[in-house]
Amino acid sequence: MDGLVFTPSAAPHATRAPCAVHAALHGTPSVRPGAGGAAFGAVSGLVAALVASQMAKPRSVRPRRVKHVCMAVPTEKPMRTTVFTKAALDGVSPGDCPFTHGVLMALKLKGVDYDVVACSPTTKPPWLLQEVGGQMPCVVHQGVAHVESGKILKWIDQTFPGPTLAVPSDFEELVSRAGLFAAIAEYTKNTDSSKDADLLVTLQMALTRFRMHLFSLPIGTQYACGNALTLADCELLPALYVLQNATAPLKGWSLNNLPESDEIRQYYNRASTLPAFAQTCYPPNVALQGWTAARS
Ligand SMILES: N[C@@H](CCC(=O)N[C@@H](CS)C(=O)NCC(=O)O)C(=O)O
C-alpha cells in the first residue's frame, strides 16, 4: 500500500530532564532511582504548568500526499496477506482507523508485503461477516482471519521474522495506563462545550503520564521503549496522529500547543519521519472527515 510522505519539522532530539517518574506508570523502580516517588502527585502540578504554558503556535508535521492505492473488495478470502479496514466516506478508500494504522505499522516494520482492502458497512464480504462478525481491522493470512488490533499486533510479532516488536515486560502496561487514545477520542468527539475543559484536562493528564514515562528513559532514547519501535509505538503514534490531524482542526488543540521542547512533541516528530509510520497513514483530510462524522 502506498501512503504518504511527511515533511518533518526539524525538531532537535530530546534533551531529557534528569527526573525519574517511571514508577507512576509501571509501579516498578525507575531507571533513575530516587526521583520517582511522588510521581502521580506531581501530575496535577505538571498539568497546571502545561495548561499555563500552552501557546497556540501551530507547527506541524505536514503530510504530502503522493499516491494512494485502493483495492476493490474481493468476494473470496484472498490468498495474499490482506488487511481489511473501515472505508472512508467515499466508501472505497481506507478510512480513519488508528487500530488499522498500528497494524499496518507493525506489518511494515516486519517487512511483510500486504494488501489493504477498505470496506463500508455494505461491502463487507460474506466470509468477514460470518467468521469474525464483520470486525475490522481484520488481517487475513494463509486463509485465517485475525481480529482485535491488540491481538493482531502480538500475532504479527510472533508470526513474522524481522526485528522483534515486543514491548519489554517493564513497559507492558504503558499504553493502557497512559490511556491516551481514549482521552483523545473523548475530547475530539465531544460537542458539549461545557465538558470541553474537563476533557482537555483528562487528555493532558494522559499526555503527562506518557511524558513522565519518556522522562524515565535513559537520555537520548528515541522511542517509547528504547531505540527501536515496538508494538507500544504502533499504538501510541496512531493515537497522536488523530490528535494532530483531527483534534487540532476540530478543537484547536494538539501537540503544537506545547513547547517545541516537549518530550511527546519531539517523540512524535521523530517517529513520524519513519517510513513505517509515514507510509501507513491515512490522509489528514480523512482523519478530519471521520472524526467530524463521529461527532454528529
Ligand atoms: N477493539 C477493536 C476496535 C476496532 C474499531 O473500532 N474499528 C473501527 C474503526 S476505528 C471500524 O472498523 N469500524 C467500521 C466497522 O466496524 O464496520 C480493535 O482494536 O481492533
From TrEMBL:
Domain GST N-terminal: 87-164
Domain of life, per lineage: Eukaryota
Transmembrane segments: none
Pfam family of the protein (one): GST_N_3
CDD domains assigned: GST_N_family (cd00570)
InterPro entries, A to Z: Glutathione-S-Trfase_C_sf, Glutathione_S-Trfase_N, Thioredoxin-like_sf
PROSITE patterns: GST_NTER
Name of the protein in its database record: GST N-terminal domain-containing protein
